[in-house]
Write a structure and sequence with these properties.
With 172 residues, this protein is mostly helical. The chain has helices spanning 3-23, 39-45, 51-69, 75-98, 104-123, 129-163.
Length: 172
């Protein structure tokens, strides 16, 4: 791993953790519903970094934000863990197989859907199904909208990073 790759990984992990903490201050209609801003650096890492670095970014974000919020090993942590796992399981193969044919909008949209479903699966251990079905009706459409918006932001940032040769690490 080059120093530039380490620096880029650390920068994205720090940005992801900061955005995760920042978005916890934004009011939400559902307890564990967030805008997903912390996943923007994760999505941006997909074309530039190997999988182990992407996993580091996700783990750092998850641990740091929940330690900061005081929710480590509580319901919000496990909901985020379930969401992060499904986010990675869906977005990594999708991006690696189709990166030349899809934009970050579709990657982020699929990631948001996966993250929300992962959260709902994890929440089944804490919340009755009939309550979760009501939460899902709110959470999934809002998550899809947030995923599209985050994808648009990722497309813009990726073009800026690529145009300015900010990071010449590239797996594609």
């Amino acid at each position: 791993m080059t120093i530039k790759e380490k620096d880029f990984t650390a920068s994205l992990a720090a940005m992801s953790a900061f955005l995760g903490i920042f978005e916890s201050f934004i009011p939400s209609p559902v307890p564990f519903l967030r805008l997903g801003l912390a996943n923007i650096p994760v999505c941006l890492s997909l074309p530039f970094l190997p999988i182990k670095n992407i996993l580091f970014i996700v783990c750092f974000k998850l641990l740091f934000t929940h330690l900061f919020r005081g929710t480590f090993l509580s319901f919000p942590f496990f909901a985020a863990l379930g969401g992060s796992i499904l986010f990675l399981v869906i977005t990594l193969p999708f991006f690696l197989l189709l990166h030349k044919k899809v934009s970050f909008i579709s990657v982020s949209l699929l990631g948001a859907i996966g993250h929300n479903i992962g959260q709902l699966i994890a929440a089944l251990f804490f919340i009755p199904f009939n309550v979760l079905s009501v939460i899902a009706m709110i959470m999934l459409p809002l998550g899809m909208i947030a995923g599209i918006i985050n994808g648009i932001i990722c497309n813009y940032l990726y073009k800026r990073l690529s145009k300015n040769n900010f990071c010449d690490i590239n797996i594609t």
